[in-house]
Write a structure and sequence with these properties.
The structure is a homodimer.
Chain A lengths: L11 H11 L3 E3 L6 E3 L1 H20 L3 E2 L5 E3 H4 L3 H7 L5 E4 L2 E4 L2 E7 L4 E8 L4 H11 L8 E10 L13 E11 L2 H21 L6 E4 L11 E8 L5 E11 L1 H5 L3 E3 L5 E3 L1 E8 L1 H10 L16 E5 L3 H20 L5 E3 L7 H10 L4 E5 L1 H6 L1 E6 L5 E5 L3 H26 L2 E2 L3 H11 L3 E4 L4 H11 L2 E6 L7 E2 L6 E2 L2 E5 L3
Parallel strand pairs in A: 3-9, 17-18, 17-19, 22-23
Antiparallel strand pairs in A: 1-2, 4-8, 5-8, 6-7, 9-10, 10-16, 11-12, 11-24, 12-13, 13-16, 14-15, 19-20, 20-21, 23-27, 24-27, 25-26
Helix pairs in contact in A: 2-6
Chain lengths: 492, 492
């Protein structure tokens, strides 16, 4: 685990990359822009998946699976969607390799195995799914369709960063079909609420719910709702989106239903997704210079027990206590690892589990054995305490709850302190460049102004918050009338 | 649900395709050879995944995720593996589309966005994973690596069938790395046992464990272990494979470790996988002319309650009883659906749930209300019985267990009755052509003979059973000496 320690304040970006690799979360692969998610990182993703999947099912959704490939003629059917993704599509053109006649140890693409129609590796699945829904929907009885898919998608990004922006990533994409506009709008907002609930109550990340501007909207959507988080470097991160697709895809794929009254109507649609990008948000919100800090609800290992011993007799005696503690904690559904490896020293293990963000560390040494005590340390505040073994289970249960809410409150305070209300352009530029965080400012509602602000400062409108106060004001850039403040920030 | 009913004895293949579609399991997609797994089919796959995943974790494995794409130079590094899959590879050659200058509503592959090196869509992940393991393994302390991946893979098959053979399919692939040959061999067999355990105790399918002949071995393996099941039409189906890869991939990717003694050694490898093909095995083993029959342990809905009523008052009275029953059953971890839809008649619902293989159906009508009874029907034998509500929970619990073992025993009897010992070529041909099932026959051990038998009869050697009796004999085809009987069959 020896590595060059980087502090957040010195080089935030390097700190992040270092942490992702050294905490064994992910690494770059031999494929440009694609990552390997390592077992420890994947275990966190699995915990996220499990909770999200439960929430989707509790709100009436089922999982299904649709093809990885989208034939080009289907891909281009919904024009805005196609245009939005065309520049970052991996394209399959051939279906066979053959031995290279010039070097029999090498393979080459077989020019005779060219596909009649190219296949796009899905960057998102609206096209393939709506071409399928056409066969599933005839009558109002077939609606709503509430389907989710866990899948990999590919978007050929030029500049990639582990978890935050990779050519291939893992995600879930919900795709629902409804008889009415009202119902589809309700679904859009319902799933945004599910995402916000998950972000705040499991990831311990406070989020702002809002609507994207037209410029920032998902290609093919009528409206894009989002949750936005704030990272420790003052940059925003879009954590999830829920799209009201109107009848755009129904029209592109001619999906109609017969209403109770016998009338043919186009179907209304939503789609919504979160991805392995959430791993990036989780890491950047809570972690510190010593490594990952994990909210207990998403920690694969919640408690680690490290024995401090000399010789086998001491280890045996400590193991007996440790295994009994492990047992007691596990009976309360707390996940525990007892690390009795003799290949590493306790100090090394302490750093290792700090780096990996294990919420609670219990150390047991010979003196503890005599006194019936253990030393307990919490990852977030680094506080240590010596406890009677008999008090331990209650203490740990309480501590995990406390850490979960402590992390949320800390992130919320940071986010709130970083929110600045700004009324002049000078102040806007100063805050964006020097202070960061969210900037609440009046905006004239035009895409043109939005674009100019972005060019001048790299700040984008993260969202028009759902709880925006309607109030007359003056656009911070153009001086034109505004109906309320929107949230600007530099963003990932 | 109106459809042309096909009996197994009339057209087994058509019966299968019909069932897959009408039981809402899967359907063909707009992409050649790729399927859509529908919500009900996917729910069964999720139940399989959950059990397998638990078993993998209980045997010490963790999940991880590796890229979808394999750069060509890595793909060709292990020559036999590359050769084995080269003819069925989907190849990504470009990373961008652009507007077609001849028709602005269409897209075309941008010829300027050609990849420097082609990317193969993974048909299996040994190459990308072993190129990654090279960075993970330095010392004996880094071993073993016990990793599994749940993923989609693509093999460009020319003749496809839903679940059994599709261009894209879902699977899990375990990839382990070990310090010694013994350990890798133990792992290979351990995972074969996990698969057999899963097949028999969850899928209720008896399997034969064996080793593949050299001709049938996985490309790049030293030995391929397999489990083979027998379908109702007398054809075998390979349900899972576990490969001892020797040091082939370690050598191809130069993966060495330093032993405790300070010596550099190549690493030993295994890989093992099961796929959505198991869905095909599940369907074909148990189902009947009325539809799917599911072993209770893998049924997404274990009990359905159908009310039989006239008017809202009756429905309300029945619903009260039904919901109380649902509650009682769910408290025993039994999954229950109460289908009170007023858009469909009870008879329609009975057929629907028969088609979908729901193990237990409970019907409640007005007379039941008076008598405190319900009618209970089991899917496998179609037996019906009227019961007191008070006896119901015990009865259902017992019935689900009984059905699980009944389905296994029935399949086992069928499989055992279909196993024929054959000593002459004439008899061999007769049994393969007219009786089907497994044929136990002596074989001289040569690939040439194996190939000739295949050409003559379409039968292949499914495996050399692990419990093969070593006995001198005469090859059924060549008359040359044989050391024991192997199992032949026509296969999916």
């Amino acid at each position: 685990m020896a590595f060059e320690k980087v502090r957040r304040e010195d080089d935030y970006s390097k700190w992040y990359n270092n942490l992702v690799v050294h905490a064994d979360l992910a690494e770059h692969s031999a494929v440009r822009g694609c990552m390997v998610i390592k077992p420890y990182g994947y275990a966190i993703w699995e915990k996220m998946q499990k909770e999200l999947d439960r929430m989707f099912k509790e709100t009436g959704h089922s999982n299904a699976y649709f093809p990885l490939f989208v034939p080009k003629h289907l891909f281009e059917a919904e024009e805005k969607n196609a245009e939005g993704f065309a520049k970052e599509c991996a394209v399959v053109t051939h279906y066979r390799l053959k031995t290279n006649p010039d070097d029999s140890s090498k393979l080459m693409v077989d020019p005779e195995a060219r596909l009649e129609e190219e296949l796009i590796v899905r960057p998102t699945s609206e096209a393939i799914i709506w071409s399928t829904y056409k066969g599933w929907i005839q009558s109002y009885r077939d609606l709503p369709i509430l389907v989710n898919q866990w899948a990999n998608v590919v978007r050929w990004e030029m500049r990639t960063r582990l978890f935050l922006r990779t050519a291939e990533f893992l995600w879930q994409e919900g795709h629902t079909a409804h008889a009415t506009k009202t119902e589809a709008l309700e679904e859009t907002v319902k799933m945004l609420d599910v995402y916000a609930d998950f972000a705040e109550n499991f990831m311990a990340i406070p989020v702002i719910k809002g609507v994207k501007t037209e410029n920032e909207r998902f290609a093919g959507a009528e409206d894009t709702y989002c949750i936005e988080g704030m990272m420790q470097d003052g940059k925003a991160l879009q954590m999830g989106t829920s799209h009201f697709l109107g009848q755009n895809f129904a029209k592109a794929f001619d999906v109609k239903y017969t209403s109770k009254e016998g009338v043919q109507e186009y179907v209304w649609a939503t789609s919504w997704g979160v991805s392995t990008r959430l791993m990036g948000a989780l890491i950047m919100t809570h972690s510190d210079d010593d490594g990952l800090v994990l909210p207990p609800k998403l920690a694969p290992i919640q408690v680690v027990i490290v024995p401090i011993y000399k010789g086998e007799d001491q280890l045996n005696a400590i193991s007996e206590v440790a295994l009994s503690i492990k047992n007691d904690l596990e009976s309360k559904d707390i996940s525990v690892k007892f690390d009795d490896r003799d290949t590493q020293k306790p100090g090394w293990k302490f750093s290792e589990y700090e780096m990996k963000g294990v919420p609670v560390r219990i150390a047991i040494g010979p003196r503890d054995l005599e006194n019936g005590t253990v030393e307990i340390a919490r990852r977030d505040t680094k506080e240590k305490e010596t406890l009677q073994v008999s008090d331990l289970v209650n203490k740990v249960e309480h501590l995990l709850e406390q850490m979960q809410s402590n992390l949320f409150l800390k992130a919320e305070t940071f986010r709130d302190n970083g929110l600045t209300y700004v009324d002049t352009w000078e102040e806007f530029v100063d805050v964006i460049n020097n202070r960061g965080g969210f900037v609440a400012a009046h905006w004239d509602g035009s895409g043109e102004t939005e674009e100019k602000i972005k060019e001048a400062t790299k700040a984008t409108i993260r969202c028009i918050p759902l709880d925006q106060k309607k109030e007359a004001g003056t656009c911070v850039f153009s001086g034109k009338p505004s109906e309320g403040r929107v949230l600007f920030a530099k963003a990932y």
